[in-house]
Specification:
With 436 residues, this protein is an alpha+beta fold. It has helices spanning 3-15, 20-23, 40-53, 64-87, 94-107, 112-121, 126-147, 154-163, 186-204, 210-217, 239-246, 302-316, 321-328, 351-359, 388-420, and strands spanning 29-33, 36-39, 169-179, 228-233, 253-258, 262-273, 282-293, 340-345, 369-371, 374-387, 423-425, 432-434. α3 (40-53) crosses α4 (64-87) and α4 packs across α7. The longest helix is centred in the last third of the chain and has 33 residues, at 388-420.
């Protein structure tokens, strides 16, 4: 099966079934998570799925008890995120889940029935898959809402662009994390430091590969992926060690580094140069004003067109276009600015609108024309050749910095949520309960 479906199957098995307890009343409870539970059968399925992903590489997996703990922590976080999303009023309808299932099937060139058959072949019920997919959608929306808190300032963008001045190198990183709780005691910090130093010693002596050590020892959510952090530009790397990364050699390991989550070891796996990002990209931009008259479905076009013809005649006769736009336009955003749309490329407002603007001379007013938004007249104010490469780079850097900030804040949010929850783990060496 292709990668997309395999990834979804893995997520589905990790998420488990919310109805499993009703189906298996004698199933043991692996953990209590606030008012929810994780069943032993769910944990077993998730562990088996991870073992299947490591078929032929079983030696890289940690001991059975460590693997079980890592997988259980993932299940706990999934439960907590879904519960938090539900508490904010987020609900996913059956129709939305149906749409998501259909999209997944199409992406894999399957019908929904064929997808159902493939799930059964891989040992997952269709009900469990839908349930986990619902959780995945609601968690994504929770993260999107969380992202609204993130802001990136212009000085941050300027600093990142200055750091990129010598080129546009990306770095593929991996890490090992020894986590520390919020408000860690001196003893906990000392224990964590001894552990990370011990891991570093294993690596320096060549007794274990970095990825295998990450799987076995890391407390990071991506431990089972060998600690892989993927490709990152400098502005996507925490500033505390971005400068150090820039001077590293491929294969080099730095650390321990003390961060908000605990102690880390960082390895530079690869580097690549992705070019300068669009220098010299010129595009014609227009500045224009418009007056919009909306037409509801089923209404005749003639009244709107006639009104705009009258307004155009008044402009040609000397009336102020901006004043007429303020008084008559039904575009509530631009009317407050006298119909001003600012600077835009030809197709920014759709090909029909752009084609009309491109036909005008500066200062000229178009005849009435129709787009999906309604009927318009447009006055072209000016044109310019803009270097969109510069603006494009700033937007890319803004997005990169925002993603790094979101990742940092989201991980902090997950740690806080985990610390505040009542967690009663009933598997492993001994039952353990914690409450924030």
């Amino acid at each position: 099966m292709i990668r997309t479906l395999r990834a979804l199957l893995a997520a589905a098995v990790l998420a488990g079934s919310l109805n499993a307890f009703a189906q298996q009343p004698l199933d043991r409870i692996a953990a209590v998570v606030d008012e929810d539970i994780i069943l032993q059968s769910e944990l077993d399925r998730a562990v088996a799925n991870i073992r299947g992903q490591y078929a032929g590489r079983e030696a890289q997996l940690p001991p059975a008890d460590v693997l079980q703990r890592q997988v259980l922590e993932r299940l706990i976080l999934i439960r907590l995120q879904a519960a938090r999303a539900a508490s904010t009023g987020m609900r996913i309808s059956d129709e939305e889940v149906d749409t998501a299932v259909g999209n997944i099937a199409r992406q894999n060139n399957l019908s929904v029935d064929q997808l159902r058959q493939q799930l059964a072949k891989d040992g997952l019920s269709f009900g469990d898959f839908r349930s986990s997919l619902r959780d995945e959608i609601v968690v994504q929306r929770l993260r999107q809402r969380f992202a609204q808190r993130i802001s990136v300032s212009e000085p941050e963008i300027d600093a990142a662009l200055a750091a990129q001045a010598g080129g546009n190198t990306q770095y593929r990183l991996a890490h090992i994390l020894v986590g520390l709780p919020e408000g860690a005691t001196a003893e906990q910090i000392a224990t964590g430091q001894r552990k990370i130093e011990g891991i570093k010693g294993l690596l320096e002596r060549g007794e274990m590969e970095f990825s295998a050590a990450a799987v076995r020892y890391s407390d990071s959510p991506n431990a089972l992926e060998g600690g892989d952090l993927g490709w990152r530009a400098l502005d996507q790397i925490p500033t505390s060690f971005a400068g150090t990364i820039r001077g590293m050699q491929t294969g080099q390991i730095i650390g321990p580094i003390r961060g908000p989550s605990g102690f880390q070891l960082i390895k530079l796996e690869e580097t690549r140069n992705v070019g300068a990002g669009g220098d010299g990209q010129k595009v014609t931009q227009f500045q224009a004003r418009h007056i919009l008259i909306r037409v509801q479905e089923g209404d005749a076009d003639a009244p709107a067109k006639a009104k705009l013809e009258t307004l155009r005649a008044r402009v040609v006769g000397g009336a102020d276009f901006a004043q007429l736009a303020t008084e008559n336009s039904q575009d509530n955003i631009s009317k407050a600015r006298g119909g001003d749309l600012g600077w835009f490329a030809k197709d920014d407002f759709g090909p029909d609108f752009g084609a009309q603007v491109a036909l005008l001379s500066d200062g000229q007013v178009s005849p009435p024309f129709k787009t999906q938004a309604g009927w318009h007249i447009v006055q072209r104010v000016g044109t310019r050749e803009a270097d969109v490469g510069t603006e494009s780079r700033r937007n890319q850097v803004r997005e990169s910095i925002g993603q790094r900030k979101l990742e940092d804040e989201w991980n902090r949010f997950l740690r806080e949520m985990r610390g505040e929850a009542f967690i009663d783990i009933r598997v492993g060496a001994a039952p353990a309960a914690s409450a924030g």
